[in-house]
Amino acid sequence: MSDEVIRAVEATLFATEEPMSVESLAGHLGGIEPGDVRDALRELAAHYDKRGINLVERGKRWHFETAPDLAHLLRREREQARRLSRAATEVLAIVAYHEPVSRAEIESIRGVQTAKGTLDVLLEAGWIKLAGRREVPGRPVIYATTAEFLEHFGLSSRRDLPGIDELRAAGLLDPVDEALEEAMRADETPDEVDEVEEGEDDFEPEADEFSSNPAG
Prior knowledge:
The chain is α+β, with helices and mostly antiparallel strands. It has helices at 3-15, 22-29, 34-48, 71-74, 86-98, 103-110, 116-125, 147-152, 164-169, 177-183; strands at residues 53-58, 61-66, 82-83, 101-102, 128-133, 141-145, 204-205.
């Protein structure tokens, strides 16, 4: 791997405002094979592994971010923290663990109706996206998570999503433990369908459970 390619990839990622995939880097640099770009990224990631910034891959896109153990040094005055409502938390968990899913499938897993506002909140947050339509009668829209979702929660891919035992051991199931646990068990669908209360699907203030990762 030539130093020229490594330096070109490094300079491009420093200058770009958005994370870039191997293919987009190769296209931007012109004349460099994707395989060479991938090798350069691996070498750069190893080089920056113990430094103040790290080169990381999120959803097959690469970018530099502050090393997690130094994030507190750069944390600016925080905006008013927001958290997802219980309903939105359930829906996000279902999409993350079972994507792509339709609204009807989400409701089947939750056992309750899902207000359109819940999905709108997650779409506006950039954590889920429209992923096409299911090829069944009615062709319902299906939803999937985004690269922004992975970046926000510090995941390289959906394979890094924690299991129930991991979440419980880390103390992350309170206060939405039942919501996440039920969402992650697709084969346990309640028989009754209840109405969602008005306003349940909005963001709620004064909690940092889902606050942004300052290292990004």
